[in-house]
């Protein structure tokens, strides 16, 4: 006997194929959710989401790495295009140091964001196409996508660079897949939670 106030209702059938204006608000919501989920699970949707996420992550990474280059005066480069005539950054007035540092941080963050976004977009698109073509979802999809992405990004530098790019991206993809799937195994024998 079910608990009081609790009823088991089967999920409602999908909204009928009627014009949107004839659907109830609940049916409109369900239809909208189906459309969004369908877009997000399509290959172009997955690619776009990965590209945007890669762009954001790359921007943060680039900003962090750029900010680390100004930690000591020993590692500061000479300022090109400075109004002070190419002095070391530590020899510039404070306002000029800040202007140069912020401009450099912006440039590096933007460059890193574009690169990460581009790689995320290409990798996710290739992986989705490989998965759709094979009709399976396993680790070979990630390996294939890593190889095709790495080789494709390095092909202009010659066949040796394309082979190295293929191998390194495939190895990185395999390592990420192993890490992400490490929790999917059988629980340890000393796990007494039930």
From TrEMBL:
Record flagged with keyword Membrane: yes
Pfam families cross-referenced by the UniProt entry: Tim17
GO molecular function annotations of the record: mitochondrion targeting sequence binding; protein transmembrane transporter activity
Topology of the protein relative to the lipid bilayer: Multi-pass membrane protein
Gene Ontology biological process terms from the UniProt entry: protein insertion into mitochondrial inner membrane
InterPro entries: TIM22 (IPR039175)
Compartment(s) of residence: Mitochondrion inner membrane
One cellular component term from this protein's GO annotations in UniProt: TIM22 mitochondrial import inner membrane insertion complex
Region of interest: Disordered: 1-28
Keywords: Membrane, Mitochondrion, Mitochondrion inner membrane, Protein transport, Translocation, Transmembrane, Transmembrane helix, Transport
Highest taxon in the source lineage: Eukaryota
Function: Essential core component of the TIM22 complex, a complex that mediates the import and insertion of multi-pass transmembrane proteins into the mitochondrial inner membrane. In the TIM22 complex, it constitutes the voltage-activated and signal-gated channel. Forms a twin-pore translocase that uses the membrane potential as external driving force in 2 voltage-dependent steps.
Subunit structure: Component of the TIM22 complex.
Family: Belongs to the Tim17/Tim22/Tim23 family.
Protein name: Mitochondrial import inner membrane translocase subunit TIM22
